[in-house]
Amino acid sequence: MPNISSVSEFLLLAFADTRELQLLHFALFLGIYLAALLGNGLILSAVACDHRLHTPMYFFLLNLALLDVGCISTTLPKAMANALWDTRAISYQGCAAQVLFFVFFFGSEYSILTIMAYDRYIAICKPLHYGSLLSSRACAQMAAAAWGSGFLNAVLHTANTFSLPLCQGNSVDQFFCQIPQIVKLSCSDAYLKEVELLVFSFSFVFGCFVFIVLSYVQIFRAVQRMPSVEGRHKAFSTCLPHLAVVSLFVSTDMFAYLKPPSLSSPSLDLLVAVLYSVVPPAVNPLIYSMRNQDLKDALRRLMTRDVTKSKK
């Protein structure tokens, strides 16, 4: 029986067969990647440089932007390189690194989104306790817990996945290395341990989702009781971007992993993978900047200061 140690590389799924379409995909993904780097980079710069944004909400937004950059940088550069050089190969070590970092950034991002829901819940439902419950130390501890739990989860999944013996070749039916695709290559009696770990992870994800939903139920109830229309509008304006990001994140994940097998096809699976791994990191900065006047003002001040310095 072939063992995983005999595999030196994996073959990723190509976006297209013709050279022209490969170059088109390269250009398209390069544009998306640069847009994601620019958008998240602006958010990072604005939050880091503007003292008015040194609050818990923007601290967690900074963490989200960092995770978005990491997530999209794990998948797209290799896909673009393969499209540019007309190859499908990724080394064994590169594949393991992709799995490790993607699970790490993906899991940590979901934890940060859950913490951001808690931040909004405290700000709107318990404003008098906001300073004590979300102090600088508490925020740092929650962020560290999100990153730490994401890394531990990624290490466990990666070690478990790449300890499985492979009996089904080395062709991965996706444009980047994914745990379900690697598990498909394992022997039929060897993947049960990884499936158990995946079930545990999905249980954690479902628990976070329930927490976010319950938080927003309480938030909407509190907003409806506000006597001021301006107060309701301000509360909604701080919640809607986060709710939109969570909805995009969860809906693409659910469609990817819960769609019926009858809908599965290589092209559809490829499209869905792009939707949940590439689109959110590129779109999240736009969602947060559209309705957030404080962030817009900070970006405007940052741009004005850079222009002033360049003129001097």
UniProtKB/TrEMBL annotation:
GO cellular component: plasma membrane
Entry's transmembrane regions: 26-46, 58-76, 96-118, 138-156, 197-217, 238-258, 270-290
Main location (coarse class): membrane
GO molecular function: G protein-coupled receptor activity; olfactory receptor activity
Domain G-protein coupled receptors family 1 profile, first and last residues per copy: 39-288
Subcellular location: Cell membrane
CDD domains: 7tmA_OR14-like
Membrane topology (UniProt): Multi-pass membrane protein
Record bears the keyword Transmembrane helix: yes
PROSITE patterns in alphabetical order: G_PROTEIN_RECEP_F1_1 (PS00237), G_PROTEIN_RECEP_F1_2 (PS50262)
Matching PANTHER family: OLFACTORY RECEPTOR
Role: Odorant receptor.
Family indicated by similarity: Belongs to the G-protein coupled receptor 1 family.
Name recorded for this polypeptide: Olfactory receptor
Gene: LOC116501351
